[in-house]
Design goal:
Layout lengths: L5 H93 L4 H13 L8 E5 L5 E4 L20 H12 L1 E8 L9 E10 L4 E8 L1 H23 L8 E6 L4 E3 L20 H5 L5 E6 L7 E8 L4 E8 H50 L13 H4 L1 H4 L3 H47 L13 E7 L7 E7 L5 E8 L3 H18 L6 H14 L7 E8 L5 E7 L5 E3 L5 E3 L19 E4 L5 E5 L1 H4 L10 H9 L6 H16 L8 E7 L4
Helix pairs in contact: 1-2, 1-4, 1-6, 10-11
């Protein structure tokens, strides 16, 4: 009983709707929320990794700035020392110019002075000539050395390259490894300032050991690594993720936690390669998923810092990325369940409130058929009070019931009256149809069938129609025939058709010329025609003995002529417009000799305008194709054309009245 009550159906409908909504929304929400939260978690991890990268860049740039400062300071010192040595050399050269010393003595004194110049353990100066031979040096080991084969850090011949460069620019700098001969001892990296002493065509070089700067940079880098290690080792991503930094050689600047050290050997999910092997192949940015044996998958995101050849990595279990989404979905499910229970309780209360008055209305409605609705019956008080008691759809439904009862009683009374009137009107239409059909001419007498074979047919679209046909003998013995189509349908067209039919017969009593007949009919119809109705007419007169045909066409479709061999053509010529439009119009006659075996067919546009269920018209072309065959009798011709039209329309409602008249002159 619960399932068949409105209360139960509303309750179940609400329950089903909520469950459908939950079933549709929850999976989509869970999927979208998981994706969104996981994307946010991944983005947060990437942001942390980017911050570590930016921090590393800042530290490295600071280290480089310090290195550049030290190099520039060292270069400035070398240039200052070189300028001092140049000034001493210039003083010796000026004494030679003044004649105080000979040129050779001045050179020897200058070389001896440089050999004794104390510059410390790491720094020394030397002079070499255009043949790349060291002439003097504060480092005794270099005196007399041929440095033509010594290469700078770029792979150029040091002595020649700096000789050419300094001659044009005045000075130059270079890095090189010394000593050039490996057997002379371990090599050290040095940087030197070169300047050209033009008076004696000498090159002066002031050199210093670069190892101090290198050691300083390495010490700063070691401190930077220690600071990063201390800062990142205790940092946790999500719930159990971590950061690590590895060099291209496989050394860990910031190692993974000891409990996750085996993660480096875990295979990548698609390729199966170990994580450490993938990290040893530098890439600007990588997103890797590994599957440790017996553990959940881990998501690894890496960035590569090329200046230090470091790979910065962030490793987070995939369950950590989706954990916030799971917690949020659980809370959402609990809230939805509470809302579902509350909605069901409210739905039950509302369903009970709606169903109770509906039950009362149902019981009252079931009693209505047993009441006599032709008399006024006062409804019960509980029903009449419902529209004022319930200000909602129930109240409007009760008001509709009461109004329906009153209107139903009135409608039954009116229906009985209208049914009686409709039956009288239908009877009158049937009588009018019988009268209209009775106005059609009777078949020709048997004695005329040897001279003319005539058959006509009419099919109104409604009970009565506006098409007409007629044929009768004139006083001179010729046969007059007519076919027409009134501009309207139904009763008005039938009345206009009756008037036209009467005028044709009355006018033909004292006039036999078809054109004059149409002229007089047109004038009479146009005299009093407030509704501007008109009729198209084809009117002809045929001599049965000779076959001479005279006809006039007032706006009607041209008649079809079917020759004895079956060829068809339409007789051209229009005498004037349709009758009834305007008084005083003149009409023209046409003539034709109808030979034996030939047939003249008049038709209304109900034939050519007939449509099928797709609104395709029957058309003049199809009609001519159907008529293209020798005619055996007028009856067969008209009936065959009607059957073809009905087959084409396939039961579609008729568009217009259909009328045919066929006149065949038989063989003697």
């Amino acid at each position: 009983m619960f399932l068949h009550s409105l209360r139960g159906k509303i309750f179940l409908a609400v329950l089903g709707l909520l469950l459908v909504i939950a079933g549709a929304v929850m999976p989509v929400t869970q999927r979208d929320m998981t994706r969104a939260v996981e994307a946010n978690e991944r983005h947060a991890v990437q942001n942390v990794l980017q911050l570590v990268l930016r921090h590393t860049e800042v530290r490295w740039e600071t280290l480089l700035d310090d290195k550049i400062y030290n190099v520039r300071t060292g270069r400035a010192q070398l240039m200052e020392l070189g300028a001092t040595i140049q000034s001493v050399l210039s003083s010796y050269e000026s004494k030679a110019q003044l004649g105080v010393l000979s040129d050779d003595d001045a050179k020897q004194l200058a070389l001896a002075w440089l050999n004794r110049l104390p510059l410390g353990d790491r720094r020394y100066a030397f002079l070499y000539d255009a043949h790349h031979q060291v002439l003097a040096s504060s480092s005794p080991a270099m005196i007399g050395q041929d440095i033509s084969s010594l290469l700078d850090i770029k792979g150029r011949p040091l002595a020649q390259a700096l000789y050419e460069e300094s001659r044009y620019s005045g000075y130059g700098f270079a890095l090189y490894r010394w000593p050039a001969d490996p057997a002379a001892g371990p090599k050290e990296t040095r940087y030197a300032y070169f300047s050209y002493f033009q008076p004696w065509n000498w090159m002066l070089a002031v050199s210093d050991n670069a190892q101090g700067i290198t050691n300083q940079v390495q010490a700063q880098q070691t401190r930077m690594e220690a600071a990063l290690r201390n800062a990142l080792s205790g940092l946790t991503l999500a719930q159990s993720g971590f950061l690590f930094i590895m060099t291209d050689s496989g050394r860990f600047v910031v190692p993974p936690p000891a409990e996750h050290a085996d993660l480096l050997q875990a295979p990548e999910r698609t390729s199966g390669r170990a994580l450490q092997d993938i990290l040893l192949t530098p890439a600007a940015e990588q997103q890797i998923t590994v599957q440790p044996k017996g553990h959940q998958p881990w998501s690894i995101h890496t960035l590569y810092y090329k200046p230090l050849k470091w790979t910065l990595g962030a490793a987070v279990p995939q369950s950590d990325l989706t954990a916030p989404a799971r917690r949020l979905i659980q809370r959402q499910a609990m809230i939805f369940a509470g809302a579902l229970l509350l909605a069901l309780a409210l739905a039950w209360l509302m369903a009970s409130r709606i169903a109770k008055p509906l039950d009362t209305l149902t019981r009252y409605a079931l009693k209505l058929p047993s009441q006599d609705l032709t008399t006024h019956v006062q409804p019960p008080e509980r029903i009449t009070q419902m529209p004022t008691r319930y200000r909602d759809e129930v109240g409007r439904l009760a008001a509709s019931f009461l109004s329906m009862q009153d209107k139903l009683s009135n409608n039954i009374k009116h229906l009985m009256l209208e049914t009686s009137a409709r039956e009288r009107f239908k009877s009158e239409l049937n009588i009018a149809r019988d009268i209209q059909m009775g106005m059609l001419p009777k078949p020709l007498p048997a004695e005329t069938l040897g001279q003319i074979d005539l058959h006509a047919a009419i099919q109104p679209a409604k009970e009565v129609g506006g098409d007409l046909y007629d044929y009768f003998f004139l006083p001179d013995g010729r046969l007059c025939f007519a076919i027409g189509d009134v501009s309207d349908k139904g009763v008005p067209a039938a009345l206009f058709m009756a008037v036209t039919h009467t005028l044709i017969r009355a006018t033909a009593e004292d006039e036999t010329d078809p054109a004059l007949l149409l002229q007089r009919i047109n004038n009479r119809l146009a005299e009093n025609n407030p509704n501007m109705m008109f009729v198209t007419l084809l009117l002809g007169v045929i001599d049965l003995s000779t076959g001479s045909l005279v006809w006039a066409n007032a706006g009607h479709p041209p008649p079809a002529l079917i020759r004895a061999d079956g060829t068809v053509r339409l007789l051209p010529g229009r005498s004037g417009p349709a009758c009834g439009v305007q008084e005083g119009l003149q009409y023209q006659c046409f003539t034709y000799q109808l030979d034996r075996g030939e047939t003249l067919l008049g038709y209304t546009d109900g034939i050519t305008d007939a449509t099928d269920r797709q609104d395709t018209q029957y058309g003049e072309t199809r009609m001519i194709a159907r008529l293209s065959a020798p005619v055996t009798s007028a009856t067969t011709l008209t009936q065959g054309l009607l059957d073809d039209v009905h087959q084409f329309t396939d039961g579609a409602s008729p568009f217009d009245d259909i009328t045919l008249i066929a006149i065949r002159r038989p063989y003697a």
